Amino acid sequence: MAIFTAAVVQAAPVLFDLEATLEKTADLIEQANDAELILFPEAFVSVYPRGFSFGTVVGSRSPEGRELWQRYWNASIAEGDAACNRLGAMAKAAKAFLAIGVNEKDLVSGTMYCSIFYFGPNGNFLGKHRKIKPTAQERIIWGEDDGSTLSTFDTSLGRMGGLICWENYMPAARMSMYQKGVQLYLAPTADARENWQHSMKHISLEGRCFVFGCNQFVTKDMYPNDLPGIADLQNQPDVMSNGGSVIVDPLGNVLAGPLWGTEGILTAEINLDLITQSKLDFDPIGHYARPDIFELNVKNQPATQKV
Question: How would you class 2 by CB atoms within 10 Å of its CB: exposed for 0-12, middle for 13-18, buried for 19 or more?
Fold first, then answer.
């Protein structure tokens, strides 16, 4: 079995600035050296709008909040648009699989989704995953997927797929990945609590897969001062997200990280033979799953795509 290098990028975008974020993304991909799989955090293109209310309370929305939404929309990306194609070109230049968290705008409906975009080393757009359940205030800004993008990809590196942030707390959602035989489990997030590390280790043990947790490091002074609604951040801490990116092997051993308090790139050598070895005593979709008793039916989930 071939051994390859994977990279997890812990960084912040240039908040609310699509063009500058794309330029920073290109620089970070170059810094990942010869990694064949590169993962970026949730909503990296071009902001996880932590701390903002968008002028919303039960029963009303403010004009200022709508103006902030416009800035947010302008900094976002659509499948097949020029920004999406530039990300594909970056993957091709790096000869790497690229998975990156984006705010995906649907140009027909006007709905925004929290998504992962996947690109191959030939620059092709492979597909996407849209978050199926935004959490709390996220439900104001992001729509919900219908399960048709619970995607997995059978690649030259292994079978990859993943879930975003607190989707990873959803047992059935995790099982939908395991049922597809996921080996490279991608978990971009905005959760910087130390307890998140327990979830990353648990998933690696439960799924017998490599887990790549990826978060941003963000400080309050990174936000533009001219944003509508910037007063929302007045009582927020100086460090808005402290990171915690990590790479874990199929037996729960940490290979790299967790990285706290700074931007940086974690790398690790990935050997899929470790997955086979880990299944000596536990196979999450084999006999240990007791398929004679339990059955999971996932509506709309697509077949694994061979790439």
Answer: exposed
DSSP one-letter code for 77: B
Beta bridge partners of 256: 247
What is the rounded CA–CA span in Å between residue 251 and residue 201? 8
Which residues on adjacent β-strands are paired with residue 166? none
Contact 16, 224 (CB under 8 A): yes
Q: What is the DSSP letter of 236?
A: S
Q: Encode pLDDT of 53-111 as tens digits.
A: 999 999 999 999 999 999 999 999 999 999 999 999 999 999 999 999 999 999 999 99
The residues assigned a catalytic role are 42, 131, 165
The 10s digit of each residue's pLDDT in 150-197 is: 999 999 999 999 999 999 999 999 999 999 999 999 999 999 999 999
SS (H, E, C) 115-155: EEEEECCCCCEEEEEECCCCCCCHHHHCCCCCCCCCCEEEC
**pLDDT higher than threshold 70 for residue 1:** no
Total Cβ atoms within 10 A of residue 262: 10
- Read off the tokens for 149: 């993008």
Which residues fall within 8 angstroms of residue 210, CB to CB, at 6 or more apart?
A: 6, 183, 184, 185, 204, 247, 248, 249, 250, 270, 274, 275
Task: Give every CB contact of residue 59 below 8 A, 6+ residues apart in sequence.
Answer: none
Tell which residue, 144, 181, 193, has the closest CA to residue 164: 144
Beta strands at 97-105 and 37-39: parallel, antiparallel or unpaired: parallel
Assess whether the previous peptide bond of 46 is cis (omega < 30° from 0): yes
Buried b (16+ CB within 10 A) or exposed e, 167-202: bbeeeebbbbbbbbbbbbbbbbbbbbeeebbebbbe
pLDDT tens-digit series, residues 165-177: 999 999 999 999 9
